Each structure stands twice: as structure tokens, then as C-alpha cells.
Amino acid sequence: MAVQLEEVARREFQLPDMMLQSGQWLRNAVLVYETFGTLNEQKDNAILVCHALTGDSHAGSTSGNPGWWDGLIGPGKALDTDRYFMICANVLGGCSGSSGPASVNPADGKPYGMRFPVVTIRDMVQAQYYLVKSFGIDRLFSVIGGSMGGMQVYEWAVSYPQMMETYIPIATCTRFSSMGIAFNNVMKQAILNDPDWHNGDYYGRSFPEKGLNLARRLGMITYRSFELYEERFGLSMVSSDDPYAMESQFQVEQYLSYQGSKLVKRFDANSYLYLLKSMDLHDISRGRAPYESVLEQIEAKSLMIGIDSDFLFPASEMVGTYELLKAKEKSVEYREIRSVYGHDGFLIEFEIMNEWVGGFLEKNR
Amino acid sequence: MAVQLEEVARREFQLPDMMLQSGQWLRNAVLVYETFGTLNEQKDNAILVCHALTGDSHAGSTSGNPGWWDGLIGPGKALDTDRYFMICANVLGGCSGSSGPASVNPADGKPYGMRFPVVTIRDMVQAQYYLVKSFGIDRLFSVIGGSMGGMQVYEWAVSYPQMMETYIPIATCTRFSSMGIAFNNVMKQAILNDPDWHNGDYYGRSFPEKGLNLARRLGMITYRSFELYEERFGLSMVSSDDPYAMESQFQVEQYLSYQGSKLVKRFDANSYLYLLKSMDLHDISRGRAPYESVLEQIEAKSLMIGIDSDFLFPASEMVGTYELLKAKEKSVEYREIRSVYGHDGFLIEFEIMNEWVGGFLEKNR
Fold this sequence. Notes:
Chain A is α/β, with parallel strands linked by helices. Chain A is 33% helix and 15% strand. Chain A contains ten helices and twelve strands. In chain A, the strands form three sheets. In chain A, strands 1-4-6-5-9-10-11-12 form an eight-stranded mixed sheet, with helices on both faces. The longest helix of chain A has 15 residues. Chain A is globular, with a radius of gyration of 20 Å.
């Protein structure tokens, strides 16, 4: 595992010492971020983009290096770099530049490992708040993100209700689900079971490749749909294999294994554990008021987007939140993407998202 | 891991040497089976019950020891022990008495381990065929089973079309799915990643507990539904835990871990691998004619039962098979259980299954 530092427009932001949701202090932490487009003089055209579990700050394209949300960010696209100023920071606890378990603990000069404090979605959002403020921005035009990024969007809407005009959560939830926590448990345990994990103290030694690879395989299943797997792989086997050998592989198995091996080259196993934990703990009402009163605090206008084939963040759950907000007379729209891609639709279905997100932003300018 | 031999009415059946679907020979193998009810003189009241992945021959109750399908087998129930004669055998490759990888290889007196030949659903059915014939039964009144048991039911209908009056596949498929194979891949790899697995050569040494425990956790997720997990566990944490500690657990996690630890006490890890493989390879058309022509071979009358919340064996897939059979003018009925239990509904929803299965059998007597 080696996180590659690429020659992109990444900058580092020094966070103030932060008291985390847990009550613990995080000191000397940084966020790495990138921006796309230009902040106008009134500083009212800023959009915060929040990334998902294995994402990073490189949401848009720079010098030919495509970002993970390239289909949505750029001239003439919904997140139009000719009109808006997008900020995307690697989350706290991540491993793409921002402080996380692979960072050096200033107290002793060694990597934190499992000594890094637990960070929540709310902590990530608090860190982003300091970053946004550092630009002199008092009010964001929008906050947008899918999956774990969407969890951050909801936390923004509740934590800083007056600091945004609009918010756009996609394929996500206001609090995580029991089944989501269950899948996370299996991914976590896959890493913990790896003898190379060494209680998180593997830096400078063998990386727990097998564990993270296995976790990623399961992730890749839950991000897609039954139909997509049928269409793409069906029951095809790796052609050179004797089907009746125990070690024979179906093409879908080879695909999962390949996806797993790709992730271990770019992602830290401990970060993976910390981000799973942040999702598990995600609940906009945790430590606040009862759930419905917390929703009441939201002020910004929302476009919520669900995906019909998403079984990790079922559209029905998003509709439930939409209906609660509607009943409270909040300004909220709900749209549902019809897609064979499942949860990962938010990284793929750009045509319809450009139309909906672009239209919604235009309407609210 | 110790497979306990209980004092139940289990009997052992010596199989003839069998050529397997792979072309390999399996010699000196046995099936362990149990029967419930009495075979009549005409020998036309026999029903073969096929078990799922971690099931065994103990489908009904004997001397106060409840079977896994106790809700369906017994006096006055759908599989009425006063009228029918049920036979249930542990599958070939299993670990509850029948020959499998934990059995001793007669060639050298050592456990087979991974030297056991790959067995398919079709091989399991062929072994059951010899067992059924040994009773002098020429025609079964029915063949019934859910999940991997249902795969056997379809294989029976295709392999021995004239040997049954009716067949009842529940929450299952005529060929496995790409997503099913994907989930199986993660479960398999969880075992392979366990250093105690030792390429399957762990007998008499440490059992690969962690790997099988992890595999079972994932299984337990896929057998249930999103809604059930929400209802049963919600976001409750283990109360003694500090939520912001990395090692804190949600109740759903404790539940999965408990289910995992229960399975390792009664199931062999290698058997688990072999049975996953048999599911992966399940396809009634494999090595035969094109899929639709294979369906054409079926002669018996069928009641097919799907479960609306099953995401491992989606009801829509069962409906697809039903419609193909209907179009070929086969005698087939389809019914769908509405259940919050997901795939495991076939082990739980006894009231409606008793009504439908009981009525269907009665009608066809």
C-alpha cells in the first residue's frame, strides 16, 4: 500500500485544535483539499462537494487527471466551473492527505494507527466548516454528496442550518441502517482477521492486503445491483479454468478480486476501519434532540436523489425522510434515478443527475 | 469444531461407486439419512426433503429433538407424518454424517480435506436417487426443499422426470445468480484467508474458526431483509460500550458474531467451501441442452414458492422460471410469501407454507 501523491492542485489546510464528538481532542490535524472554478467577489457561489468512503479531494478534473465526479463538475455541467466554485476536501480520518490513522502522531512522531481518535461524520463536517470559513465564505450556495458524502450533507444541513442556501443528498441517509452496520461489520472483521493487521500497527511492515481486499469485494457487491451482475457477468467462468476444480473461478469472482487488489494499492486499511465506524455512528440526532425535532432545525432548500436499485441505501428510506421534511413544510424535492447500477449510480448516472442538479441549482441562484 | 452424533434415528446408506458430474469417481461414500412417518405398502407416499447449506438430515422431530423443518413436518402438518413418509439425507459433501471433505479417504486413512472431489447439486441428487431406490420406491410423491434444497428439487425434476408426482421448490433457482456467486466468493475467501485453514489440512489441528465465523456472518445478512434488521436491532448499541470507542459494538454486530460462533461448533469449514462450490456450479442446463429445452424435460406438477423480501433468490427470478414453464404448458403454480424475514422465510413462515404445501399435496393425492 502506498498512497500516491500526485501532481495536482491539492492544498493543505491546518485545522485548529478540535474537540471531537466523542469529547476527545484532535490537535495539529490537516485537511487536504482541491477547488474547481473561481470564487466570486460576493463569495456566494461556493459549493462544497463531499466524498464517499474511498473517495478523495480530487472530485473534478485538473490537467487531464479525471476526478471521481468528473461527469458532474466542469464547464457547462451541473457543478459548472464557469459559474460555481467547488471545494472538495479529503475527510478527516481519510488517507488521501487529510489527517487519519496513517498520519504521524505529533506527540511521539509515530503513526497513530488505532490511537487515532474515532471521528464521526459530524467531526468531518466541523473540519470542513473551518476550511469553508478560511475562504471568507459565510454561506455556501450548496452542499452536495452521495453515500457517505451524503451523510455529511445531512449533517451540514443540521449542524449549520444558516450556512447554506441548498443541500443535495444523494443515495444516502440521515442515520445509518442496521443492515448497513451489519455489512460494515463483515468488512471490518475481514481486516481484523488478517494476521498482518497487527492491531493496526502495521506501518513499515506488511500491509494487511488480504483483509482489505476481502472487505472491498463485499463493498463492491453492495454497491451494485442483482440485475447488473446478471447482465455483466452472468454465469461465465474464467475460460481457462476447469469448472469442476475447487480453484476454478467465475468471471464475477475475478472481477471482485481485481477490485480488491486495486483498492489495497491506494487505500489504508486503518482508514477504512475508521470510516466504517463513522458511517456506523452516523445519526443526525445522536446526542441532540429526538430525531424529528432535529429535522425541524433544517432551513436550506433541498433536492434529494434516491436510486431505485440501491439496496444499501434503499430509495424507500430516502422517501421516508422526504415525507417527514415535507410534513414539516420544509422546501424539499425528491427525485429517483432509475438505474441498473444500484448504489454506485451516483458515480455513473451523470446524464440525469446533470439535468436535475443543474436545474435545481439554476432555479435557486 | 466437533460434529456431534446425537441419539436420533439416523441411518447410514452405503452408496455405490459413483461417477460424478466432473467425471471423477467417488468410492465408498455414504449418506446419512432420517425418515419421518411410514412408507405405505404401495410405496407411493414418499416425499424427499432436501436441506439447505447448513442443514442436515434432521428435518423433523424425533424424541423431543426438534428438526429444522419441524413447523412443516408432523401429524396434521403439510408434510403429515400420519399420511406421508419423509426421507431427508445429509447432502454429499456435507459434514453431518454423509461423506464429505472431513471424511476419511479410504485410500490412505486420512481425512480428504481438499482432496475430496468437487460435488455438484446434480451429484447430491444422484446419491439421493440411490437412497430412494433402496427403499423400493419407484416414484416419489413429492420432492421439496428451500434454498440449496430447492436447487436439488429442480435437479430432481430434470434428472428423473418420471420419478416424481410433484415437486416444490422454495426460495430458490434453476441456476445460481452472479450476485449469489459473488457473495459466495466473499464467504469462501473469508475461510481461505484464515491462517488456520492450512489449505484444508487442519484436521487434528486448530480449526479455522475466524474464517468460518466471518463467512457465516455474511450469510446471516443475506438470509434476512433490510426491514427485519431495522425492526429487530435498529441502531441499538451494546449498552455497556462507549459508542465512541473503536471496539464498541452495535447489537446487530453482537448478533452476527454470536451466529458465527454457533456455526463453527457444528459445521466443517471445508464442507462449507464444497457446498458453496456446488451452489456456484448449479445450473440445470450445465452440460445438457440449452436452458429452455432442459425445462421442457420436466414432467411433474409443481408448486413454486417465492418470498417477496428475498434478495439472494429474488422472487422475480422465480416468477421468470414459472412463466417459462407455464408457456411450455407445464402444470405449475406460483405463490409468493409476504414476509419481513427475507430468504430465511422458508424456515420461519410455517403457517402460510402449511396451507399452500398441504393443500397442493392433498389436491394431487
